[in-house]
Amino acid sequence: MLPKLPAIDTQYLTRRLLDMLAIPSPTGFTDSIVYYVGRCLEELGVGYTLSRRGTLCATLPGEVKGPKRALVTHLDTIGAMVREIKPNGRLAITPIGHWSSRFAEGGRVTLFGERIQYRGTVLPLMAAGHAFNEAIDTQPVNWDQVEVRLDVAVQSADDVRAAGLEVGDFVAFDAHPEITETGFIISRHLDNKAGAASLLATLEAMQRHQLRPRLTTEVLFTLSEEVGSGAGHALDDDVTEFVGIDIGPVASGQNARETGVTVAMKDSSGPFDYHLSHHLIDLCRRHDIPWQRDVFRFYYSDAVSAVQAGHDIRPALITFGTDATHGYERTHLHALESCARLMSAYLLSDLAWKADRKQDVPLQEFAAKITEQAPQAMPRERPEAVILTPTT
Predict the structure, then answer these.
(1) 240: closest CA among 66, 51, 49, 16?
(2) Which residue is catalytic, options 147, 204, 225, 337?
(3) Tens digits of residue pLDDT in 252-276
């Protein structure tokens, strides 16, 4: 019998999202967002552990014994760091994560010194139209062409240092979130605070309806996905399935949408697990969750970091389609709610392949996956070899 999915509280989801968007968390500066999410888990009555670096790992006990699963999202965002204090008191910056300085221009930022913080604005080197006229339009787009103007009276590098700032200080960009009456959510840093909010809403729904997952599930909130390390260190050895929740780029040539769930079939590191990905698609079909598939060309996720760290897992990725990723991003509440519904369906379902309950699967049982799920891949009878005799 198909289990009934718990209703997702979209007001809870949006509250958590707006709270997190107000907390700066560029990679390497994530303590405050970890504290916030830890408090959210405590309010839900979900137990968790905390690693030295701050990775949160909540454990949801399952109904049956067997290997574990993992649901994984990340709390860190793109941002910047002070690279140079210029003689005129302006600051050169270097990006944290991979993103274009085009989207940094005009951004309002907070700079975090050791004991103080200041506000500022990221500007192109030629920012005054009345001074540079049409020359402004000739300026290249790269991080050497932008600088931070501090909202404090400084005229020299000594002034900046006297104010308490130094090379290596973090620069966090304001999110500027807006939620429209039509359900669109526009903000910086939806990657991946929207995914984290959707996952928290899933946990809230499961707790409110007193539902237990089919299998014990680790729920991970990681801290360094934007720089490539992500979940590599945080998984137990008995985790067999890994489902990441992250952003899906909506753009020309992509199939991701700002509605429903976009299931990633491949990213720049290679294909995701065939059986787990199709299991998720089947859950969408069975529970009437709108979905689409996509292949991401320039993309990296926590799932990949876990595989590259040597974990023997089936990786998959579900995403909320988002326009202008790593810029002024836009998604829709429908996509976040759909992702939460799919996560609930996944938690209540069995393994994508039941043979994964065993550590050492017999070859015949392993091959059943080919006959049942991918018959087109069955080996055909070997043809007779044709031997060509060279002519002289």
Answers:
(1) 66
(2) 225
(3) 999 999 999 999 999 988 999 999 9
